[in-house]
Amino acid sequence: MANLAVSIENLNFKNPIFVSAGDPTLTAKLAIKSIETGVGAVVLKTCSKHEEEYIVTRATRGFPDKFVEKGNFMNLSPGIAFKTPQEEAAMIKDIMPIAKKENCVVIASIGAPARAWDEWEEMAKLMEEAGADAIEIMMCCPVPMVPGLGAEGATEENLRDILKVIKKAVKIPLIMKTSETHSFFLRQFARGIKDGGGDAWHVQAHVNTPVVDIDTGELMCPDVAGWGRPQRGIGVETALVTSTLVEIPILSTGGVYDWRSVVERLMAGATLVGIHSEITYKGFEILHKAIKGLEDFLDQKGYKGVQDIIGKAVPCIDPEWKKKWFVTHAVPKEKVYIAVDEKKCTGCGLCFNCIFDGIYLDKVTNKAKLDLEKCERCGRCVSLCPKDAIIMQLK
Ligand SMILES: Cc1cc2nc3c(=O)[nH]c(=O)nc-3n(C[C@H](O)[C@H](O)[C@H](O)COP(=O)(O)O)c2cc1C
Ligand code: SF4
Ligand code: SF4
Q1: Percentage of the chain with pLDDT > 90?
Q2: How far, in Å, is the centroid of ligand 2 from the Cα of 77?
Q3: Does residue 138's CB lie within 6 angstroms of at least one atom of ligand 1?
Q4: Residues with Cβ < 8 Å from 139, sequence gap 6 or more?
Q5: For position 224, what pLDDT does the model report?
Q6: What average pLDDT score do residues 85-96 get?
Q7: What is the pLDDT of residues 352-369, one digit of tens each?
Q8: Position 254 confidence tier, pLDDT thresholds 50, 70, 90
Q9: Could you tell me if the CB of 368 is within 6 A of ligand 3?
């Protein structure tokens, strides 16, 4: 069986999947549910001395179905407000025996205005004393309520100085969590994290994906619509870029929802892959499935372990590789073979609205039929067919 283990500094994770800070780790009961799914780590809901300044946002209106379909479902909950540091410490003490039994790493998460040095130091010490295995420094939250807290306070200098202050106060590994996705900022953050001596970097992919409520003309969830599946592509991109900027391990969240997206994120350079929204959407069961799916994938493909796939896709961001790709993939359509496998085709019609009129229903056989003159070999029907009934390959 493939080896799923990964590590950060002296911390060993039995597998690379973790539950990211938020609702699924809001209380001890929920954190235990997360741990019992078999994940490698849980990051607890962020604590802060400023919890009372946060609005407990509860959604008050329905979202259109399409919004849910995109995976950008209503996700405003008590989880938006932080816990107090004392609550977090008590929670760590409660869950630690179970986490030890399950061999699950427990990561505390702390948040403070960027230059509130005493607060960082005090909270970090409290988390270490309570028994946390590592600390995540929350500089990612895009909800702008307390000046300098979360994404608003994330600058190269602040990341560096916060790490330096906490490094002096505690011995456990420190993970810096940010949410910028643009490479301009990522380069600056990378310098700050390197200079501050961070042990790992959690890059949460967050770009706003707003939806307009067409009944009122107002935005739904201004500033916070940006978690879950719509972040998948930008999550991959962010992992690819950051893994080339630093030597330390990358933790990646944003749009991961099943074992395939876990594999994809590992190949994009992440050492640990986190899930949040999909758990709140479909339940804790998806974590079992993701771990099992990852294991089966590695076994079927003959990989010895997760280490074999981490960063496999990273060389592809090299401009030379991209150039080569376009050259090797640009071929005249006559050189591309395409055919419908009639045994597999059910005549469902999903592929029929080809804009080149390249595929249509054969009324005699009731199966899809190609018009090879008109078909441009764009591959759209191949991706759409639920039965894998259309074969396209180089001749
Ligand atoms: C309701 C909610 C609460 C969250 N709370 C926190 C938090 O307290 N601390 C934190 O670092 N991230 C928090 N996050 C961010 C998640 O940990 C995660 O990085 C992000 O949702 C992207 O992953 P996903 O696409 O799987 O949801 C929260 C996200 C949501 C939607
Ligand atoms: S999902 Fe659960 S907590 Fe959220 S509104 Fe529905 S019943 Fe309430
Ligand atoms: S989508 Fe696939 S199964 Fe459906 S008609 Fe087209 S080829 Fe046949």
Answers
A1: 72
A2: 9
A3: yes
A4: 111, 114, 150, 151, 153, 154, 158, 159, 162, 176, 177, 178
A5: 56
A6: 97
A7: 999 999 999 999 999 999
A8: very high
A9: yes
Q: How many Å is the maximal CA-CA distance in the chain? A: 78
| DSSP secondary structure letters along 357-382 | --EEEETTTTEEEE-TTT-----HHH
Residue 140 Cβ inside 6 Å of ligand 1? The answer reads yes
**CA-based torsion, 184, 188, 191, 192: positive or negative:** negative
In the numeric block, the tokens 């009122």 are attached to: 216
Domains of the chain: 6-317 (3.20.20.70), 331-394 (3.30.70.20)
What band does 216 get if pLDDT is binned at 50, 70 and 90? confident
Query: Which residue's CA lies nearest to atom 30 of ligand 1?
Result: 22
Structure tokens given for 122: 């005090």
C-alpha of residue 73 to centroid of ligand 2, in Å: 12
Q: Of ligand 3's atoms, which has the minimum distance to the CA of residue 346?
A: 3
With bands split at pLDDT 50, 70 and 90, how would you rate the model's confidence at 52?
A: low
